[in-house]
Every structure is written in structure tokens, then in C-alpha cells.
Amino acid sequence: MLGRKSRIDKTLVAFISPALVFYLLFIIVPTVGSLYYSFTSWDGINPNVNFIGLANYKEIVTSARFGNALKNTVVLTVFISLFENAIALALAILVDRVFKLKNLFRSLFYIPVLISGIVSGFIWKVMYNYSFGVINAMLKSAGLEALMQDWLGNTHLTLIMIGIVLVWKGAGYYMIIYLASLQSISSDILEAAEIDGASAWHKFTKITLPLISGAFTINFTLSLINGLKVFDQINVMTDGGPGFTSETLVYLLYKVGFNEGRQGFGTAVGVVLLVIILVLNTLQQKFLRKREVQV
Amino acid sequence: MSVGRKARTIDWILVIVAAVLAFIFIYPVLFALMSAFKSNGDILRAPAAPPTSFYTQNFVDLFQMSDFGTAIVNTIFLTVVSECLIICIVPMAAYAIERRRSRFTGFLYTFFIAGMMVPFHLYMFPLFREMKVFGIFGTMAGPIVSYIAGSISFGTLLYCSFLKGIPLEIEEASVIDGCTPFQTFWKITFRLLGPCNASMVILNGLGIWNDYLMPYLVLPSGRAKTITVEIAGFVGQFTARWDIVFAGTIISIVPALAIFCAFQKYFVKGITAGAAKG
To answer: Which residues of chain A make contact with B118, given a CB cutoff of 8 A?
Structure first.
């Protein structure tokens, strides 16, 4: 209870203002600032910022490097979202059904989530290594020398190999959400279906899946947004290479901003990223949420 | 689980499948752990083999060849100070939003939550410029203020959903007893928010502990920054000394793992509450 009517405003202001000040100063002001800088040729050092209109956005539309980064981002994000959700859901169903050691399995699948992006990238980079990596060593001892390769150096595979690290690191998080959703399904419904003669497959597709569609919406949205923001693993594993094969929008933004002194163009790329996130979020609200079923 | 022979076999098969998958999932972590206790030669020669002895030279080298101690102190400082301030600021705002429903607080709720969609990479350049204006670029205060601001979106979601479950009667009683709103919040409600605070500190703290880009770009160069930043630096710098980097990764992973083992249920609560629809 926040006091009587006469004091309401003062109290409300006192409770909210610290958070509001931090939020405005260090999120909203720089976000609005980036909209402004995206119309400038700011280099990050020079205090004088030149307004250049839509030039950055024109460059975005025409530049092959941006097109390549956009393509890479789409490939990586779609790969991550699909596999993260498929694996997370499978793990959640498995943990839900296992009759022993439920909590232990749940914890073990969650452990990769605890590891930082940089550390996970480094561990996998070593495992992927051509000469000294554990994956090639295992293939060799299994007599599958033909499959051995430079996992991160093969330009057809680089993005997928980075995607695997992110799926491994992220699946446990989404599993927790699916698991909570599965456990909230009342067993009465499933028993009733069983009495009515529903097969296991029918119970799963007609009852379980519709009832966890809320978790599905949340997880799909979260994994898409997180996929768009991947940075640390790319930084430590490939630095956007070989060539530009693993340069995503976020990585392009970082590179032009810090290595090439073009922070104006970098923020314009960031604005495009924000627009993509907003569009995805709206689509999610429109399409996925409609299909959700409530009990 | 239904009883009967067939069901039992299936149950055991599922446990075995889960065990195999769990092993695959934690293998990279085990691999890092094993490698941290192997000499560089052993890591290169037999990457899959377990360490032959309890070899700790990597850790000695790590602290001798780099200023890793400073990095550890910095990481702990950033995480602890940010979380202490977050716990003072965020629950209070969420409390006002949740308990004092109006169009204004409704707007604030949406306004705060919307921040989750804004990627850090979008606003980092202007943010750094702003930090320079305030004179906090290159100091610990830079990342800390940004972590506080960045915690508000998820925090509002988490605390508001948790506050819905705390009965109003207790607070009403304390108001009747003459408590000011501040006293009511800090002495009554805040204590009832314990599990929620734990979830917030743990999930948010893990993000700060593991953060890379912000400390890398904001903290002054020429000195050790944070654990994650040092490790990223080693990958380029000690390309031939993986043993040292692995020793560093273990120092990064073990505290997170220990906190997870001790406070597991708060991880689960925080994630599921954060995923609840706002």
C-alpha cells in the first residue's frame, strides 16, 4: 500500500524515480541518440558530428557487405531458433518423463547456460581445431578420417559450427520454460483422453502441444532475439571470418564502429537490427499468440 | 508411471537416453576441466585423454604471466556492487507500479518492459559518448550504471509477477499500524520478496559475471579488466598456450557452477517467472 491519496504522487515519484532516471539516462537517451547518429558521419572521436541525411541508409541498401551480413544473420538466427527449440522441447519431454534423477538431468542440461559466451566459444574453438581438436581426434580413432576437416575454416560450415555452440549453450534455458509448461498440464486431461482411447501420439499432438503453445511463443521469440544479438562466440571463434563468412549484423556494426571509425554507419546498422526485432515481435503477437490455447 | 514389464523397460531406456544426452551436453565442460589440469603438450598430443596427474602449473603460469588476480577482483566488484544497487532500485519501482495501478504506472510498465527489445549493440556508441560527458568512461562506474539500467526491464517483469502473489492485507495492516510507505516496503514487503530477490541477483549477476563487450570497451586499457575480457585477450595473445587459457576458463566457470548448485531453485523460478506473459 502506497499511502493515502494526499501523498500518493510524492511516494510514487520517490519509489519510481531512481529506476526511471537510470533507465532514461542509460537506455533511452543513448537509444534516441543512436537514431540521431545514424544520420551522421560520426567517427566516434571527432566532437563535431556532420549530418549526412540518409546516406548511411542508402549505403545499407546498396552495400554488398551489409547484404552478406544480413544473410548470415538470417541463417544463424533461423538455425539457432529451430534447433534450440526442437532440442529444448525434446529434453523437456525427456526430463518430464524420466522416472529417476529428474533434477540431476535438468541441472546437467542447464549447465552450459552458465558459461560465458567467450569461454564457450573458446572451448569449442579448441574442440573444432583441425590438428589438435578433440572432434577430429575422435573421428580419427573411429576410422572416419574422411570426415575430418577444419570445422571453422570451411566456409560452408563456419556459421553452422558457431550455431551449434549457441544451441548447446542455450537449449537448457528454453528447456526450463518448456518443462514448467509441461508440468502445469493437469494429469486429469491426459487421463481422460487415455480413457477415451487416445493414442500416445494423439495425446501429444492434440493435448500437450496445444497446451504448451504459450511456452513455444515465448521461447521462439526469445531465441530469435537472442540469435540476432550473438556476438561473443563470433568474436572469439572467427572474428567474422574467414573473409566475411561469419560476419553478422551485430558483428558488422562492431567492426565498422571500432575498427573502421564509422560509428555513424554502425548505429544505422543497429537501427535496422532494432527494426527487425520490432517486426519479429509484432509478427509473434499477431500469429503465434492467436494459436495459443488456454485451459 | 504405470506398472508392468513393458513400461519398466521403457522407463529404463529413457533414463539411459537421458544419461547419454547429459554426457554429450556436459562433455565440453568436462573437456575444459580436464584440459586445465594437463600440460600444453598433453592437450595437443591427446586432447580426449583425462589428465594423468593433478597438474597445477597452468594456474601458476596464469597468475605469473598475466594480472589475472586484478581481473578476478574487478569482476567480483562489478557484480557485487551492481547487484546491491539493483536490489535497492528495481524492486521499489516494480512495487510502485504493481501496487499503485493507474494509466501512468501502466504506461511505465510497458515502457520498462519494452527495453528488452533494444539490443545493447544499438546504443553502445552513444552510450560511451554519454559516459565520457559524465566522466565515468574508463571507470568502474561506467559498466555499473549501465548494468543497473539494463536490469530494469527484466526486473520489472520478474518483480511485478511475483508481487501479484503477495497478499495486500499484510501491507494494509502495517499502514494501519502507522508505517510510512517506505517502512512498509522495506520492513514488510521487501522481506517477503526474498526468493524473488534471489532469482534476480542470481540470473542478473550471472549476466554481469559473464559479460564481455561492456568491460572490454569501457574499462581502461593497459590493465587487467575482467575475467572474461582477460580470457578473450589470451585467445589471441597466448595462441600457443591453451593450457593457460583453460586454467582461466575454469576460474570463470567454477563460481557460476557453485552458485548454481547451491541456489538451483532460484534459477528455475526466475526463468519461469520471467517467461510468464506480462
So the answer is: 27, 31, 274
